[in-house]
Amino acid sequence: MRWEELDQEPCSVARALAVVGDRWTLIILRDCFLGVRRFDQFESRLGITRHVLTDRLKKLVENGVLAKVPYQEKPLREEYRLTDKGRALHPVIMALVHWGNTYMADERGAPLVHIHKPCGHQMHPVTVCSHCREEVTARDVRIEAGPGWKTTQTSPSDRQSTNR
Amino acid sequence: MRWEELDQEPCSVARALAVVGDRWTLIILRDCFLGVRRFDQFESRLGITRHVLTDRLKKLVENGVLAKVPYQEKPLREEYRLTDKGRALHPVIMALVHWGNTYMADERGAPLVHIHKPCGHQMHPVTVCSHCREEVTARDVRIEAGPGWKTTQTSPSDRQSTNR
DNA sequence: ATAGATGAGTTCCAAAATAGAACCTAAGAA
DNA sequence: TTCTTAGGTTCTATTTTGGAACTCATCTAT
Q: Where is the composition biased (Polar residues) (chains A, B) (predicted)?
């Protein structure tokens, strides 16, 4: 399968990854959440080549994750800002930061910490059920085919009981 | 910067992505959470080439995300199972599924839905603060340098106010 | 007026990664 | 004896990256 065909897949992970799933895109988005907006800031912070950065930013704009907003004219200069769709990726980034902090930190501890402004405390993200508000673990969740699952292929519940 | 140097970065996202951030790895992990364990199952479900699948599985094992467990001898056959470290990526996958369901679904609706077994309801993941248990949005969170941040570079709070 | 500097790219080539197919090996089945 | 299965490895052709240099319009300093 070619990467570009991935967004045809009837799986939300595949579709999401078709947009954000390559080597650089999530790091670019991390920087967006840190307030970075301009081409040369991304370039100098990331150590990414200009060619690839151009391409990734363009794709993020095409997919509505970032928007190009002019911040001056003569000459026209534009910066990249998160859209609502882009900001909705924040839980993904937070979850990655937390996982990295937990499992990939060196002896000095976490390089980045999250502060929850409303309560003022250092925090890490906790995932809870939207219905009962109980904390969710991998074993508590069953994945089922939803309305958008193609009927021409095996449903996920046709397979073994999910996880473990 | 080469991809392999990324795990040296003092950023948990970068370190996390050094392990799970390439085109195929998160899709492999999605299948792990669906109960897939064997080489040929991954291959036929994913449309990935065997060469790349071998490489990704090996890296996931090296990084302690998956473990090779023999399920028969003569001939030796091994399957790949999530470790605790791997299962800890579940919030990342759930967040990606939810984002994909919300923003990338077609007119028929979500291809995958989550059921929270303890309460029995369809759910989506909600991220709350580990301290006050209030729901967290991107604007509620400030990112600060933690103990593991290298002092030789600019701290994230030296920059503009985070997000927005 | 001329010579940089800035911001945001584009172009070019070499190196690395990927897709697709064929081949390998050990054991068991027909 | 040949076929099938599980889990790879090897090969070549195509894509994607990395790295460096070039472009272009506008400011700024000399």
A: 150-164
Whether residue A5 is found in the same domain as residue A75? yes
Count the domains in chain B. Answer: 1
Residue B154 belongs to a domain: no
Instruction: Kindly report the backbone phi and psi dihedral angles of residue A145, in degrees, each rounded to the nearest multiple of 5, phi listed first.
Output: -70, 135
Q: Two tokens at B61?
A: 């094992």
Domain presence at residue B161: no
ipTM associated with this complex: 0.91
Q: pLDDT tens per residue, chain A (164 residues)?
A: 666 677 777 788 899 999 999 889 999 999 999 999 999 999 999 989 999 999 999 999 999 999 999 999 888 999 999 999 999 999 999 999 999 999 998 778 888 899 999 999 999 999 999 999 999 999 999 988 888 876 444 445 444 433 33
Distance CA A116, CA A122 (A): 6
Q: Cα–Cα distance between A121 and A110 in angstroms, integer?
A: 16
Asked if residue B112 belongs to a domain, the reply is yes
Which amino acid appears at position B40 of this protein?
A: D
Task: Mutate one of A59, A141, A142, A164 to test the B interface: name it (highest B CB count within 10 A).
Answer: A141
Count CB-CB contacts under 10 A for residue B70. Answer: 9
Query: Can you give the CATH number for the domain in which A77 is found?
Result: 1.10.10.10
| B123 contacts on A by Cβ (under 8 Å) | 129-132, 136, 141
Domain limits for position B91: 3-140
